[in-house]
Amino acid sequence: MRRRTISLLVLVVALLLLLWLVPDVPLLVFAGVLLAVFLRGGGDLIGARLGLPAPLRVLLFVLLLVVLGTGFALLAAVPLADQANQLWQQVPRVAEQIQQRIAAYSWGQELLQRLQPENLSLPSGGGSSAFSALGTTFGALGNFVLFLFIGLYLAVDPGLYRRGIELLVAPSLRPKTRAVFEEAGETLRGWLGAQLISMAAVGLLMGLGFWLLGLPLAVLLGTIAALLAFIPNIGPVIAAVPAVLLGLESGLSGALAVLGVYIAVQTAESYLITPYVQRRSVDLPPVLTITVQVAMGMLYGIMGLALATPLAALGLMLVRRLYVEDYLEQEPAPERPVIVS
Questions:
Q1: What is the dihedral of CA 52, 53, 55, 56, to 10 degrees?
Q2: CA 312, 302, 17: angle at the middle one, nearest 5?
Q3: 200-221 pLDDT, tens digit each
Q4: Which residues 6+ apart lie within 8 Å of 217 measured at CB?
């Protein structure tokens, strides 16, 4: 077996073992890669005209983010926190009103009876549940800190880690590996930039639409819609739930109006905004995106679901370059049969 083949098999087996034994590690590193792409792109955007070296551009962009984040916390964090507290109080109250309306029907009573806690199979654990929740909280905080540091280190000097991976493949494959890394960075940068624009547009249009309807907590609901738009197809559906519940306070017409805003914004995002901003980046087939989201969500939970779409974009690029172009397309064309007259 040739050295280049063995080197590729070693990398693939190592990645599969990591995904099997410690799946959180590769996903956390990939999340850090996305953060690095964002920081690097932002640094290049604001620092290129200043003639600064790449590390200083990244640090300047990080400093700008810290300043903007601090200003946001001073100006908007308290109002948003108040709105979040109101949403936390109103949604259960509205849900209880809906439950009372459903209970007026016989089929509704049967449905509510089936949903009673004693009729549901709950996970065992007893008194250890509090300790599990505490461990999960500290684990999430630790992962968030690691995510920040991974993204920062990769953004400051990505070449160091790229060269390290290149050394693990055979010398004949290193130019191709370098080219694949560069195209992968362009793919993720294009997808992330388009996704951020789409998220901002969805949040702005949703918040404006809810405000025009007189829906309470319009700013918070628009912010939630913008954040959950990071997960295409599934995230917007989740974001619509609290808005529709609050719209039900005004009756069925209020809920339908909120649903109309949601459908209008999602239609504009799907057919106008996203195709326009992604015309120079990867265009993912919707069925492929949903399939990868479901698979990653089932295998790796919420973190897999959140990273499913950029992973699909990266995987589609790798399949196209390494399998279709470098393998399938290398097959010689069939010879034309000789026709004897």
A1: -20
A2: 65
A3: 988 899 889 888 888 777 888 8
A4: 83, 86, 87, 90, 246
